[in-house]
Target: Mannose-6-phosphate isomerase
Amino acid sequence: MVKEPIFLKPVFKERIWGGTALRDQFNYEIPSDQTGECWGISAHPHGSCEIINGPLKGKTLDQVWESNRELFADQEGEEFPLLVKILDANNDLSVQVHPNDEQALELENYPFGKTECWYIINCEEGAEIIYGHYAQSKEEFAQMVEEERWNDLLRKVKVKPGDFVYVPSGTIHAIGKGIRILETQQSSDITYRVYDYDRRDAEGNTRELHIEKSIEVSMTPHQDVALESIEEVKEGLTSKKLIEENYFTVYHWDLDGGVTNEVEDNYLLVSVLNGAGELIISGNTYSFKKGDHFIIASTISNYELNGQAEFIVSHPAK
Model:
């Protein structure tokens, strides 16, 4: 039985809005100067991460999900439930929306919709996201889209480093230029674009829009969700629970020194946003640094963290 952390090799995605921050800020080897996404923890068919240590080295996360379910608290389901990304919005992302589980199954024959959340790692001063809209009915929404009244329709919100944004399925949204985020989401890649600023790719083509599906799945009227974070200090670790909802629980951890934690009947997805340190399990020491992504399996009873580091940590709903 595997009783060591599972370190993962990220998968990178080139995007029309991507840049070089994933290289410049996280020291990743990126495929081009338009790299928009680092899939740090993924078993998705469009990019499953390879394991780079231990007895499972060389296997992909989707393979291990199939063959070693004991590492994941014997969780049921055909698909690994979550996907963790770091995004570099060197330019504005398209205005988009994602379906819920029922809609994804009906429209795309895929078991997961896409509820997600964002932790703002850093951003340019004055940076904005699009979060929600002002239409009061689907008919009004459709009319405003048809008339391209984007300034009247779309709700803009300023963000700053350390902000947390919950984006349930059905929420119209877009990450704005100059923002780097860590995204925790359901393991789905279904995106319906509403508006893409009429921009063209290197071949002069516009990207496909999905207006009818967008209108069908959008929350109308938009409703904000009230969030309440809970902070707990244990030894050298300050843990802030950012959200607990139907698909995931997400924490921000700030480590300054050392802490010993127990694994409580689940597994943890860990991404290192800053700093470095050591993870000690059963007397064995594993180093981690900024940009690393690893899983603490449910077969591990307890672990020790030492160092100065900042993490986003999540686990699926039990």
Observations:
- The CA atoms of residues 159 and 315 lie 25 Å apart.
- DSSP finds six helices and 22 strands in the chain.
